[in-house]
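Researcher: Go.
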Amino acid sequence: MGRRLLATDDFAGGRTRIGVARIQRDIGRESNVGFLLTTYRSGAISNQVYSADMRYKLHSNWVVTGQAALSRTTGAGVAAGQGTAWFGEIRHTGRHLSYTSTYRDRSPGFHSELGYIPRVDIRQTRNSFGYTWRPEEGRLVSFGPSAASAVTWDHAGRLQDWSVETPFTFRFHGPATLEISREEEFERFANLGFRKHGTSVAFDTQKWKWFGISTSFRTGIDVNYYPAAGIEPFAAAAQDGSASFTFRPGARVRIEESYVYSRLAAHDVIFDNHIARSKANYQLTRAFSVRAILDYNAVLPNQGLVDLERAKRINLDLLATYMPHPGTALHVGYGDRYENLALPSMMRVNIPGYSTGRQVFVKLSYMLRL
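Model: Structure:
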């Protein structure tokens, strides 16, 4: 990779070299210890991560896990230096009672080129608790409350965020699930503190063989993370809803319809977002199937309050698959995207009638059986 980059790029140079080594040993029943080493070198960038982890089953219902990691990074233009990461968790799982307590710590200098580390400079605790009653008779399979909390600080001791969620869940024969929940949150964003909250309800059922439904709705307070120029981020009223339906009119046909809606509003609407999808699968024979997906996405902002572009998109995807046996398959597909653009100015208009991405592809895989 480095040979194709400009000489001024930190990753420029020879080939990229990657190495991963893992050793694990079982100790007793369902317990183990392990060690992991990863190394990455590309141009002037070098990164190594050394890690030790363990899983120990204290009891049939109690499990402890932990991990300690050290990273070393060199090279200009990156977070060079040394960093540490720690993780510990104790978990209880039972027929009625469940409990989890987790601690996570990543220093500001921790870095892993071969891993996905979305956030460093944190000390975080998470706790969850739930209790479930299971009636012996009736349509109700189980019901009960649960609670989950999280608190995050940085290594300077400054509070970054906290949250508390208290859902109550009912599960019925069918199956069907109803959940009602309340969330209270604090978030630090752009060096500003915001109090958020929300009340939500969700329901889904697969009671009928030919039809399934899943719905949810949430209302509360959220943050405008992308304010218009000259405006700081601010809290506003938020509503989110979704609904999906699955139709199975025959053993070979499956049709899915879904819709997701989001709105943020203060004294005026900040934005509306609509996402709709239609998906159809038809199994013509055991080996041959076809699939079609039609997506519509519309972002409708008030550009005086939010830095978003008024965009409407339609995506069409068609796929035909021939799979005589697992591991061997031929895929032929077609895709097209239409946006609300007008030539030659490329200005946004009302109707998404301009094709911005059209492709045809063929993919063949064959499994050799020796």
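Model: The chain has a mean pLDDT of 92.
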